[in-house]
Design goal:
It is built from three helices and 21 strands. The chain is mainly beta and 410 residues long. It folds into two domains: 48 residues, no CATH class; 268 residues, Porin. The strands form two sheets. The chain has a 16-stranded antiparallel β-barrel. It has a two-stranded antiparallel ribbon with strand order 8-9. The longest helix is centred in the N-terminal third of the chain and has 15 residues. It starts with a strand and ends with a strand.
Length: 410
């Protein structure tokens, strides 16, 4: 993350010239011309501020994965981006002080996805971004302005993460959030194969909705200041959607602790307005993370439940899931922290006349490389599913995959 300021860079260059031993007598007639040329070069290669009052910060990351998969009938190797909302992106942010304790700012967040992990399957090795329809997946993920008071909190207006967006996921402080979480980012649209031949539902349909409210939407959001590690948020958005969230983060007795919970409702909206949660639905989620600072041992758990009533997309449906990840985080080499973990997930999708249940377990290692602001990972997952319809149980093949990937920040 870098804030560009041409004047500061020029001043630093000038100070460096003096530090190298130059004196007043050494300065010839071309000194100012040389300095102006250096400033011009800097201006041509750095981001320019729109004005002298509002800051500009450019940040983001690029992440890609290589995955070998086996669905019981065939296997293959794909290269793809992490799923939308955690995929490769660039973010422009900035703010300006209005008066002591008051500021205004903006966020413009653009995703640039080569192949969306949420869309790949056994018949499609490369997929467009889920919400863009663009084959190369360039889309605006967030675009909003905000007003902030140090004492009263912040209000944002526009396309943004609402208060309950990914609430249960983001408390995971282990360093393994991107490669391993409870969302079906890299296998959800693969089809579960029926034992003996034939195709069942996709895996995201077997587990049911886990990231039910996981995409930004046009909304008005309020975030309170943090008091003793506690904060609350609330938002209202497109066609009768509202939510509220509460968070805590702190350290005590040698442990780092983070807890976040959220409740959201969508009523009387156009079917599919929220893409994931749908209309006439209620969703509760909670995530907890605890890490022992001395040893690096950690435990992360998450729970979520979606209930829908006469939703055009999810009629009379109830989804419930549990997720647990445990491991250790330690610095055992000079490059950065290493994370070793194991994970388990159970998801139930009760959608009469079809009921289904999915189970997942996996292992993984993440290596952080501090000098490059980078993380690399190697993971393995085994997925099983049970499907029942009006005629009885339908046996399904297991799904296995190994994934190697990396994320580099800028």
């Amino acid at each position: 993350m870098k804030t560009f300021n041409v004047a500061a860079l020029a001043a630093a260059g000038l100070l460096a010239s003096f530090a190298s031993g130059a004196s007043a007598a050494d300065l010839g007639g071309n000194c100012c011309a040389d300095l102006e040329e250096r400033v011009a070069e800097l201006e041509a290669t750095t981001a320019r501020k729109g004005n002298r009052k509002v800051s500009l910060t450019v940040s983001g990351w690029v992440t890609q994965n290589i995955m070998w998969w086996d669905n019981g009938h065939e296997s293959n190797v794909y290269v793809f981006d992490s799923g939308t909302t955690i995929a490769s992106h660039v973010k422009f942010t900035g703010s300006a002080q209005i008066s002591p304790g008051w500021s205004a700012g903006y966020v413009l967040h653009i995703e640039a996805i080569g192949s969306d992990g949420l869309g790949i399957n056994e018949n499609q090795a490369s997929a467009p971004a889920l919400f863009s329809g663009d084959r190369r997946g360039v889309q605006t993920l967030q675009s909003f302005w905000f007003l902030k008071s140090d004492q009263l909190g912040k209000v944002g207006v526009g396309l943004q993460s609402q208060a309950s967006d990914n609430t249960a996921i983001l408390v995971d402080g282990s360093g393994s959030l991107v490669p391993a979480n409870f969302v079906q980012f890299d296998y959800g649209f693969f089809t579960a194969q029926v034992t003996g031949g034939g195709a069942g539902p996709i895996w995201i349909g077997i587990f049911g909705c886990t990231d039910c409210n996981g995409a930004p939407l046009n909304s008005v959001r309020y975030d309170s200041p943090t008091f003793g590690g506690f904060s609350v948020s609330a938002s209202w958005g497109e066609d009768d959607f509202w939510d509220i969230a509460a968070r805590y983060a702190g350290e005590f007795a040698g442990f780092k602790v983070a807890v976040a919970a959220a409740y959201s409702e969508s009523r009387d909206g156009t079917p599919g307005t929220l893409v994931l949660q749908g209309e006439n639905t209620e969703f509760f989620q909670i995530g907890k993370y605890v890490q022992h600072l001395a040893t690096g041992l950690f435990l992360y758990t998450a729970y979520g439940k979606l209930e829908s009533d006469d939703d055009a997309l999810l009629p009379d449906q109830e989804n419930e899931f549990w997720y647990i990840k445990a491991g250790i985080r330690g610095k055992w080499n000079p490059h950065g922290a290493t994370v070793l973990y194991g994970e388990y997930e159970n998801g139930e999708n009760d959608n009469a006349p079809n009921d289904s249940e999915g189970n997942l377990w996996g292992l993984g290692v993440v290596q952080e490389i501090d000098a490059a602001a980078m993380s690399m990972w190697l993971t393995y997952r085994h997925i099983e599913g049970d499907l029942e319809d009006a005629w009885g149980d339908i046996p399904l093949e297991d799904f296995d995959y190994v994934k190697f990937g990396a994320l580099i920040n800028f």
